[in-house]
Amino acid sequence: MSSKLVRQNKIKRILSDRIISNQEQILKLLGNEGVTITQATLSRDFADLGVIRTFTNLGVQYTLSSTDYGKEIAKLVGLEILNIAQNESMIVLRTLAGRAQGVAHYIDRLNREEILGTIGGDDTVLIIPNKVSNIEKILDILKDLITDNYKK
What residues have CB less than 8 Å from 47, skipping those under 6 apart? Predict the structure, then answer.
């Protein structure tokens, strides 16, 4: 794995695990992990990864843009989903073994108001809609994830 890919994976992990309000914080955290880069390199990595500055109740925060983040891994997530089932109130996804938590995390990062939350096991994801009437909308989102892998 290239050093750039390793570095960018560390950046994604840090942004997912912590609240980062300035670039100096992430440079220091990367330094603690043995990655020394310039602010210019960090800015290029942010652009590559789709990192955006958002304003929250806690102030400025750097996050992975849900749309850019989605573009980066949507194809992989679609390939990891094996089956979709639903009843009158919930949706269950079957995934490749060991991938349910990653798929659940991706779905959470979509920040769709129709999705109240997810629970990921080993090969099963439970999706809880905010309203039962939104199940069809969520199914459409999930089917798009899967079928996008077969479009040219």
Answer: none
